[in-house]
Amino acid sequence: MNIDVVVLAAGQGSRMKSDLPKVLHPIAGKPMLAHVLDCARSVDANDLHVVVGHGSDKVKAAFEGANDIQWALQIEQKGTGHAVKMALDNLAKSGITLILYGDVPLIQSNTLQALNNLVSPTQMSLLTVNMDDPSGYGRIVRDENGKVTSIVEHKDANAAQLSIKEVNTGIMAVPTESLHKWLPQLSSDNAQGEYYLTDVIAMAVESGLNVETLQPEFAEETYGVNNRAQQAELERWYQARLVNELMTQGVTVLDPSRLDIRASGAGVNVGRDVVIDANVILEGEVMLGDGVKIEANCIIKNSSIAAGSVVKAFSHIEDANVAQGCDIGPYARLRPGAILENGAKVGNFCEVKKSVIGEGSKVNHLTYIGDASIGKNVNIGAGTITCNYDGVNKFKTQIEDGVFIGSNSSLVAPVVVGENATVGAGSTITKDVAANKLAVARGKQVSLNWQRPSKK
Ligand code: UD1
Ligand code: CA
CA 197 to CA 84: how far, in whole Å? Predict the structure, then answer.
């Protein structure tokens, strides 16, 4: 069965008070519209149609690579029915059309699947929820047998209808053939002078179709975002779900309300007995192996940390690859291309960029390692700098197995320090150091006879 999905995303979102179109505002680091589209893809939608209006250029640009999207432009926002009509020419002649909202981001695939399953040439389906305070929403009107007969918008409802607690979420699945018939018949003769999509319900009943309703597993799936407070509320709800999922997989999370997961793509993969302390942010694709421990206040983005490694407090790790049994931080920064081999150690106030730190090697204090390859069992003394940049080009530093670099040394690249060589503290190394040698490149210490000046 062909499934067309129409996502309404033309509204302005003026209550967000933002230069960014509303549907591009993120939940868990991912634009709301992307959540909706990914969910639609998960139920095997054949075509995705997005109706854009306000900020349409920015919205389209944000999804430039996605060639499964057909854009429909609604220049003037004349109502939800008018919005769907903008995509009508692109819809298949048969099959199902599923209607979603770009600002209702957390709809789940099992809900959409259930809606689709209810559609046939003689039946459409509608997602409803019951609300204690239904004001503002369209009410679901039913006959004495409980069959849906129409939806009446709040502003058009009479007193009896206003007391109905079951409301329209806006999400529905309709036989596409019927939609082709009904949308051209919508009128704007109502309290708001808009073409209401909700009027197709009465049309369906009139044409002898049954309108089946369904309620979502979680009411939050149907919550719309109109302002920053609602965005934050959904963010919290979604985070709680993501964190719960990690705990289900065996992760100890010391404070579930203080772990944030901002993942697109594959998300977070965890081994057994991972421990995550408070105020940690995991972003993008993150892999944490068995027994990994992440202390408080760390940010880990698109990185993999293998079994038994410990990331101590306040460390920042991005696009890095950490092997087993490594020890990082506190206050360490691993930048893109940092590779730590088994048992390596990067201590406080060290920055590593595009470099390999070999097995068992230690970079313990106040050091910058950039564009370097460091062999096994190397000790890099405190305050060492690889001088990799001459202001125009970058050069490599090569430090072979067993090297000892004394504290406060500068290694001016390109330079090679051979196996088991030693560099004396405070040296500025500009030439290669041969294996097993001691290189010292600093002013010689002298002791002079000298009298301190005294005050006259
Ligand atoms: C709509 C429903 C109402 C339902 C409520 C749920 C109609 C007539 N009413 O009301 O029954 O209870 O949603 O939140 O459908 N949009 C466009 N173009 C337009 C108008 C709207 O793209 O011309 C988009 C908006 O950007 C938004 C969505 O459609 O994402 C819903 O529009 P909104 O104005 O919020 O609908 P409501 O009047 O609240
Ligand atoms: Ca609304």
Answer: 8
Nearest-atom number in ligand 1 for the CA of 199 is 8
31 ligand 1 Cβ < 6 A: no
For residues 401 and 383, is the Cβ–Cβ distance under 8 A? no
Distance 225 CA to ligand 2 centre (A): 8
What is the C-alpha separation between 383 and 398, in angstroms, rounded? 18
Contacting residues for 390 by C-beta, under 8 A, at least 6 apart: none
In angstroms, the Cα distances linking 67 to 8, 44, 56, 60, 142 are: 18, 15, 16, 11, 41
Q: How far apart are CA 294 and CA 246, in angstroms?
A: 14
- Per-residue pLDDT of 173-209, as tens digits, reads 999 999 999 999 999 999 999 999 999 999 999 999 9
- Mean per-residue pLDDT, 200-225: 98
Whether 226 is in the pocket of ligand 1, judged by its Cβ within 6 Å, is: no
End-to-end CA gap in the chain:
101
The candidate with the shortest Cα–Cα distance to 127, out of 44, 183, 137, 192, is: 137
Conformation bin of residue 452: beta by default, left when phi > 0, alpha when psi is -120 to 50 = beta
Q: Rounded to an integer, what distance in angstroms lies between the CA atom of residue 300 and that of residue 279? A: 11
State whether the beta carbon of 33 lies less than 6 angstroms from ligand 1: no
- pLDDT tens-digit readout, 375-392: 999 999 999 999 999 999
Q: Which two tokens stand for residue 428?
A: 């500025």
Per-residue pLDDT, averaged over 390-412, amounts to 97
Q: Which residue, 180, 186, 141, 185, is CA-closest to 164? A: 141
* Spatial distance between the Cα atoms of 81 and 96, rounded to a whole number of angstroms: 17
| Gap between the Cα atoms of 134 and 103, Å rounded | 19
Residue identifier of the C-alpha nearest atom 13 of ligand 1: 170
**Quick one: which ligand is closest to 138's CA?**
1
Q: What is the Å distance from ligand 1's center to 80 Cα?
A: 5
Q: What is the pLDDT of residue 263?
A: 77
Integer-rounded Cα radius of gyration of the chain: 31
- CA 109 to CA 5: how far, in whole Å? 13
Residue nearest to atom 22 of ligand 1 (CA): 10
Ligand positioned closest to the Cα atom of 186: 1
Mutate to test the pocket of ligand 1, among 77, 80, 164 (most ligand atoms within 8 A of CB): 80
The C-alpha atoms of residue 280 and residue 295 are separated, in whole angstroms, by 8
Residue whose C-alpha is closest to residue 314's, from 300, 301, 296: 296
- Catalytic: 365? yes
Q: How far is the C-alpha of 391 from the C-alpha of 384, rounded, in Å?
A: 19
